[in-house]
């Protein structure tokens, strides 16, 4: 259709261009109609979604690597309550199934979490490639910025493979004699002469028997279900790099997605618009309505952003904790055990009836501690130093 002598033409645009052009037609005095109850329903649903993801993440962190996990205790308590109304035979069957599943899930080597790990990364990067990358490209984002998550992903997957496939430092009869000489016994947390009942060998200082892998590991940190492997002296550096690169990847995805949505808000001029409520009254656009509008326009992107932001917070906290352990030359196992003792920076002789004071004798300063992570010491190096 032509008007006032203007020539009419229909340009060929992509789907993303059409959507972005449509968002930018609002103008400074746009008015949106408000669907009654939809904003509150969406915010409730979105908060439930975030709480669910946070709860699942917390449960996985609590359950992994413990002999008696929080989830197992919760199942036991729930079964005690339900025993009042459930028949005895059904209770026994449910108990065997639940505890058997939990044992296989958290206390035996399984590729389930590795597959879940890869599936989550594939889902997030699939959504980023399918929608976010295309929209950002139409908005003329720098190409290097858009490729940054892929570069971080490549580095992360490399660290993941090296850490999961590496020998964490399994103690065998052939290397036991040399590993015993690497670290000194502190006399509190690690006692000389302690024998592992499973491996029937004296435990070197800073080692621990992993019940999941069934072996003693030198400088044992923890068993990671996401890697399906222990973290020990030989792969601690790869684990730290894996964790930092994963945190950087999630942060980059969240930052680019947030930047895209902020561009959308600026193009559509939503912050200067108004909407009509159920009574027909006009109100300025507020944050709940803005989030609702973005969700209705980009539902998959907003859900992905919520997940990635939560992941960034969780991984950021864990990365900070792991760096603290690296700077102070502690392992997760040692940090957890040290909570049972009083911590002191000075060695003092105390009567037997008093609480034992633990002192970290392995810390040698930040730089030497980091060097030990990336270049684990040997018995020969310790002999030269002494």
UniProtKB/TrEMBL annotation:
Keywords: Acyltransferase, Cell membrane, Endoplasmic reticulum, Golgi apparatus, Lipoprotein, Membrane, Palmitate, Transferase, Transmembrane, Transmembrane helix
Signal sequence, renumbered to the chain: none
GO cellular component, one term: plasma membrane
Location(s), subcellular: Cell membrane; Endoplasmic reticulum membrane; Golgi apparatus membrane
Pfam family, one: DHHC
InterPro entries, sorted: Palmitoyltrfase_DHHC, PFA4/ZDH16/20/ERF2-like
Membrane topology: Multi-pass membrane protein
Protein family membership: Belongs to the DHHC palmitoyltransferase family.
Record's protein name: Palmitoyltransferase
Organism: Lepidothrix coronata (blue-crowned manakin)
Gene, per the UniProt record: ZDHHC4
């Amino acid at each position: 259709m032509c008007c006032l002598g203007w020539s009419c033409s229909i340009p060929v645009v992509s789907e993303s261009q059409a959507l972005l052009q449509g968002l930018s037609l609002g103008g400074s005095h746009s008015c949106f109609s408000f669907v009654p109850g939809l904003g509150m329903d969406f915010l409730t649903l979105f908060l439930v979604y975030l709480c669910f993801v946070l709860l699942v993440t917390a449960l996985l962190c609590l359950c992994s690597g413990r002999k008696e996990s929080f989830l197992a205790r919760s199942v036991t308590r729930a079964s005690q309550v339900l025993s009042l109304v459930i028949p005895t035979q059904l209770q026994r069957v449910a108990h065997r199934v639940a505890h058997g599943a939990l044992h296989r899930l958290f206390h035996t080597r399984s590729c389930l979490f590795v597959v879940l790990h890869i599936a989550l990364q594939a889902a997030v990067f699939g959504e980023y490639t399918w929608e976010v990358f295309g929209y950002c490209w139409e908005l003329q984002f720098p190409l290097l910025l858009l490729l940054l998550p892929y570069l971080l992903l490549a580095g992360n997957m490399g660290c993941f493979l090296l850490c999961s496939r590496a020998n964490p430092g399994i103690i065998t009869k052939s290397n036991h004699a040399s590993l015993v000489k690497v670290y000194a016994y502190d006399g509190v947390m690690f006692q000389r002469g302690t024998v592992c009942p499973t491996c029937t060998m004296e435990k070197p200082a800073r080692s621990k028997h992993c019940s999941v892998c069934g072996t003693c590991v030198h400088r044992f940190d923890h068993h990671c279900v996401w890697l399906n492997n222990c973290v020990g002296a030989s792969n601690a550096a790869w684990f730290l790099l894996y964790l930092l690169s994963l945190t950087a990847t999630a942060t980059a995805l969240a930052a680019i997605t947030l930047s895209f949505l902020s561009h959308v808000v600026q193009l559509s001029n939503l912050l200067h618009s108004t909407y009509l409520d159920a009574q027909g009254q006009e109100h300025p656009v507020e944050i709940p309505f803005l989030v609702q509008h973005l969700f209705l326009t980009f539902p998959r992107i907003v859900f992905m952003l919520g997940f990635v932001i939560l992941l960034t917070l969780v991984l950021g906290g864990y990365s900070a904790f792991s760096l603290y352990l690296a700077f102070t030359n502690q392992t997760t196992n040692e940090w957890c055990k040290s909570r049972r003792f009083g911590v002191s920076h000075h060695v003092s002789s105390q009567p037997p009836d008093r609480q034992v004071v633990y002192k970290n004798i392995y810390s040698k300063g930040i730089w030497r501690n980091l060097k030990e992570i990336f270049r684990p010491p040997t018995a020969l190096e310790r002999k030269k130093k002494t």
